[in-house]
Amino acid sequence: MELQRALLFDGQGAQEVGMGRDLCEADADVRCLYEEADRVLEMPLSSLSFHGPAEALVQTAVCQPALFVHGIAFFTLLQKRVPSFRFSVAAGLSLGELTAHAAAGTFSFSAGLRLVKTRAMAIQKAAEEAPGGMIALVGADKATAEEIAREARLDIANYNAPGQLILSGTHQALALVPELARERKVRKVIPLDVSGAFHSRLMHKAAEELRRFLEDFPLEAPRVPVFSNYLGRPVRRPDEIRSTLIHQVEGSVRWEDCIRGMLEQGIGQFVEIGPRPILTGLLRRIAPQAEGIALTTVLDLQSHEHTLLKR
């Protein structure tokens, strides 16, 4: 019986200085991808990814394209090093959903660069016009997190895993969370070091800008189902993909639902591509028995090559 495998891509927050440099040193085709990205994006993305500075790489307008390029570059190298590699479904956290679509053939790398640039700049602009932030609730269940969100007038940005939910909104509303969480005996509250209230109503203008861009943006049916963060299930029709990518900007990321949906479809191996093994960590919280492989460097690819050959 053929192994059912999911391919996962990281989102904003996984970036780190040096990402992609070893990929470029290992392969000429990867170097070409980075050169194309520098040209299409009209920014020194390669240099910022490889050398920083960190304060520049963390900016949304830089970070999101950097992660997209890193994901497709690593996927390209994976296909060359392990030609028999196959995957049954694809998914990504937030920005990573766009990388998953590119890997699945929904749009080309070049078109994806334009899409990611538009999305990133719209989100950064919205964050500057409507300042806000995000806060993690550790140990809270869904009902408790939703109750706190309603009382503080916040949105649930991420349903990441059992006991790990993220709230998003204005700084004034976020200031109410610690006391509300204490009253409900939530184990820990952690303010996140982010530049905006992502996946919340404060991103509405960004979603509308992305809607206008996507009106004439060509989309194909992906070769494999791609799980939607917004719906928590796979999407395949171009019209549905267009709609979910727009709603995802201001809607909740239902990552736990995505993983559970993949498990229900018989996925037996989850392969994460990104600079840091964030999604593999969430997988362990959702389904400790599931097989997860994190590919962050060329050395990881070499060490897991035998496992990735399994079919």
Task: Give an overview in words.
With 311 residues, this protein is of the alpha/beta class. It folds into 2 domains: 5-122 and 201-308, Malonyl-Coenzyme A Acyl Carrier Protein, domain 2 (3-Layer(aba) Sandwich); 133-191, Malonyl-CoA ACP transacylase, ACP-binding (Alpha-Beta Plaits, 2-Layer Sandwich). 51% of the residues lie in helices and 15% in strands. The chain contains 16 helices and 10 strands. It has helices at 21-26, 28-41, 45-51, 54-57, 60-81, 95-104, 109-129, 142-152, 171-174, 177-183, 204-214, 238-250, 255-264, 278-286, 298-303, 305-308, and strands at 5-9, 89-92, 133-138, 155-161, 164-169, 188-191, 226-228, 233-235, 269-273, 291-295. The protein has a 4-stranded parallel sheet with strand order 2-1-9-10, with helices on both faces. Strand 9 (269-273), helix 14 and strand 10 (291-295) form a beta-alpha-beta unit. Helix 5 (60-81) runs antiparallel to helix 7. It is globular. The mean pLDDT is 96.
